[in-house]
Amino acid sequence: MAYEIPVTQARAELADLINRVVYGEERVVVTRHGKPLVALVSAADLARLESLKSEEAEAAAAEERVIASVSAIRSVASASASGERADFGIVAKHEPPERR
Length: 100
What we know:
By secondary structure, the protein is of the alpha+beta class. The protein is built from 3 helices and 3 strands, in the order βααββα.
């Protein structure tokens, strides 16, 4: 749970708030008219948040690649169903060994 403090009070107590965040491992939410305005978090917390953000971006990019692959497969399947010949890029053909 974060400690909430009005912006007017936070101005007067900034040094103490910084100490609470750094040494007390607290999070401080500065409010204006009762609504959250900004949050004070430690540099370590910020690094974790940024790391999570980049991991989420990588996961979203991977998901987009999967969706694009499925869409491509679907378009090939549609072409096959409509009577067109689908070329899957097969470069080798398996033939059974000759019998003697």
